[in-house]
């Protein structure tokens, strides 16, 4: 994928050297939806980095100041023009707006460069931080799926099912949410953003 730069962050493909930082936040995942990604040791992290590096779906989010990996975002294409999106960040870097900054850059890239029509995200009902981020991004809550998915089991091995919310945003809603001038030609805007922000 194209390298995306914001004021404080670089979004890029995973590469060698990311394993230690990835292990730092996937050794003990905070949110249940990432339990299946738990990494036991550095060897597992290195294998995961190699797998992620072969795909444009998993995107590393790094500090521009140090180059260190602090989290990741993902975008999975559902043909022809819809993407499932999400994010996961190291808790040590929480509260500084990095997730919001990275997600905004990803959304702009998908809408302006990849010509996405619709983006959506699944968020567990108890994940208030991600719900608030979706809302700050201008996403609509489209529904609540009761006992939609299970990420863990109880002490007797019975799956614990969680309620999941779906948020979404259309390209035209993103444009309106970000106050693009009505007279700005879409093709011109896409071309300018592609060359200036993502070149």
UniProtKB/TrEMBL annotation:
<dbReference type="InterPro" id="IPR016181">
    <property type="entry name" value="Acyl_CoA_acyltransferase"/>
</dbReference>
<dbReference type="InterPro" id="IPR051531">
    <property type="entry name" value="N-acetyltransferase"/>
</dbReference>
<dbReference type="InterPro" id="IPR000182">
    <property type="entry name" value="GNAT_dom"/>
</dbReference>
<keyword id="KW-0808">Transferase</keyword>
<feature type="domain" description="N-acetyltransferase">
    <location>
        <begin position="9"/>
        <end position="156"/>
    </location>
</feature>
<dbReference type="Pfam" id="PF13302">
    <property type="entry name" value="Acetyltransf_3"/>
</dbReference>
<protein>
    <submittedName>
        <fullName>GNAT family N-acetyltransferase</fullName>
    </submittedName>
</protein>
<dbReference type="GO" id="GO:0016747">
    <property type="term" value="F:acyltransferase activity, transferring groups other than amino-acyl groups"/>
</dbReference>
């Amino acid at each position: 994928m194209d390298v995306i730069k914001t004021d404080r962050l670089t979004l890029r493909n995973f590469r060698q050297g990311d394993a230690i930082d990835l292990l730092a936040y996937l050794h003990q995942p905070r949110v249940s939806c990432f339990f299946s990604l738990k990494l036991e040791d550095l060897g597992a992290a290195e294998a995961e980095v190699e797998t992620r590096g072969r795909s444009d779906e998993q995107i590393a989010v790094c500090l521009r100041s140090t180059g260190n990996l602090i989290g990741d975002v993902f975008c999975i294409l559902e043909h022809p023009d819809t993407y499932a999106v999400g994010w996961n960040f190291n808790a040590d870097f929480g509260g500084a707006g990095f997730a919001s900054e990275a997600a905004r850059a990803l959304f702009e890239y998908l809408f302006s460069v990849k010509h996405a029509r619709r983006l959506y995200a699944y968020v567990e009902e108890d994940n208030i931080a991600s719900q608030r981020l979706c809302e700050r991004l201008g996403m609509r809550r489209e529904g609540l799926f009761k006992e939609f998915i299970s990420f863990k089991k109880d002490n007797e091995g019975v799956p614990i099912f969680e309620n999941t919310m779906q948020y979404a945003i259309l390209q035209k809603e993103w444009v309106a949410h970000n106050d693009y001038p009505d007279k700005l030609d879409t093709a011109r805007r896409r071309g300018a953003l592609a060359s200036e922000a993502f070149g």
